[in-house]
Amino acid sequence: MPELPDVELTRRDLKRWLAGALVTAADTEDARLSRPTSPRAFARALIGRTFVRVERRGKWLRLDLDDGGKVFSHLGMTGGWVRVAIGAPVARFERARINVVLRGRASSVRYVDARRFGRLLAVREDIADWIALGPDPFADGIEMSRFSEALARKRRAVKEIVMDQRVFAGVGNILATEGLWIARIDPRSRGNALRLPADARAIARGLLRAIARELADRKRCKDGRADSLFVYGRTGQPCPRCSTRLSSVVLGGRTTVFCRACQVRRR
DNA sequence: CGGCATGTTGCGCA
DNA sequence: TTGCGCAACATGCC
User: Fold this and answer.
1) Which residues of A are catalytic?
2) Burial of A131 by CB count in 10 Å (0-12 exposed, 13-18 middle, 19+ buried)?
3) Residue A30, Cβ neighbours under 10 Å: how many?
4) Whose C1' is closest to the CA of A77: which nucleotide?
5) For residue A78, which nucleotide's C1' is closest to its Cα?
6) 3-class state of residue A214 by DSSP
7) Which of A16, A46, A57, A212 falls between 20 and 30 A from A242, CA-CA?
8) Torsion sign (Cα): A118, A165, A62, A1
9) pTM tops 0.85, yes or no
10) On the CB side of A64, how many CA atoms lie within 13 Å of its CA?
11) Residue A120 β-bridge partners
12) How far is CA A125 from the centre of its chain?
C-alpha cells in the first residue's frame, strides 16, 4: 500500500467518507496498533464526535475531531482503509472499525492491515512522529536551497538521504528508486559528492515526476500495482532508457534498483 | 521450503 | 553525540 501517493489517495477517500460524519461506533482490539495509547482510548475518543477534516503529511494521516481530538493513522507496510455497509462481516485482516452517519447515511469505515506494522492512535496533541516530519514534496513542493544544503551536508548515499522522513516526508523505497532513475543519478552517490545545485534540481524533478506518475497510475487501477514502474522490482531486466541490464544493491537495508550505464555516479 | 516485501524502531558498536 | 548496520516486528505471496 503505502508511500506518499497511496496515502494521498487514502486521504481523499477518508475525506469523502468521514469529513462531517458523526461517529456512532468505534472499535479496535489491536493493542499493537494503538500503542502507546489503548484500544479503549480509541473508542472513547471517537464515539459521539464528528470528524472535521482529514490531513496528510508524508505517510501519516491525521483525522481531526470537532472537540480538538486527533486520530493518527500510519499504514505501515500493508495497511489500508475501506468503506463497507454497516453490519458487513469482518473484513479480512480487519483491525479497527469506525461506524458513522454522514448526511443521513450510515456506513462503516474499516482499517485493514495484514502485517500490523501500521499505527492508529487517538490523542489530544500532535505526536512527535508527525512533528518531526520534513516538508511533504507533493503538498508543500520542494524548497531547492534547503534540499541542496541537506545533500551537501551528508555523506550518506543520496538514496538514503532522500528517504529520510525529515528530509522529505512520504518518500519511500519505490519513489526514491524511481525518482533517482528519472534524474539519472546513481543512488549510491554520496550527498556531499553531488554536483550542486544541478543534481539536486534533477532529483527534485525526478521525485515529483515519480509521485505524479504513481498517483495517476494508482488512481487508474485501485488495487495491485499497475506495471507503470520504470525500474523498481525489475533487477536484471533491460533499462527502459538504454537497455542495459538493471543492477541492484542494498542501501540502508533496502533493495535499490538502478542502471549502471545511464545513472551517473558522483564521487 | 526459502526468500522477499511499499515501513519504522531499537540495539550494539565504532 | 552521531552514524551505521542489522535484526526485529507479523504475515502474505511467489
Assistant:
1) 2-3, 59, 254
2) exposed
3) 18
4) B7
5) B6
6) helix
7) A212
8) negative
9) yes
10) 9
11) A73
12) 21
Asked if residue A225 has pLDDT above 70, the reply is no
| Identity of residue A78 | T
Q: In the complex, which nucleotide's C1' lies nearest to the CA atom of residue A160?
A: C4
Which residues share a beta bridge with A56?
A61
Q: Strand runs (DSSP E) across chain A, as ranges?
A: 22-28, 51-57, 60-65, 70-74, 79-84, 94-102, 105-113, 119-123, 247-251, 254-258
DSSP state of A14: H
A190 in Cβ contact with A155 (< 8 Å) = yes
Q: At A175, which helix (H) or strand (E)?
A: helix A173-183
CB < 7 A contacts with chain B (nucleic strand): A 1-3, 6, 58-59, 74, 76-77, 115, 117, 129, 165, 172-174, 225, 253-255
Could you give the strand order of the β-sheet that contains A70-74, starting from the edge strand earlier in sequence?
A: A51-57, A60-65, A70-74, A119-123
Give the Cα separation of A267 and A264 in Å (integer): 10
Which residue is listed with cell 525518482? A179
Q: What is the pLDDT of residues A56-113, one digit of tens each?
A: 999 999 999 999 999 999 999 999 999 999 989 998 999 999 999 999 999 999 999 9
pLDDT digits (tens, 9 = 90+) for A12-55: 999 999 999 999 999 998 888 988 888 888 999 999 999 999 99
Q: Which residue has the cell 501500521?
A: A118
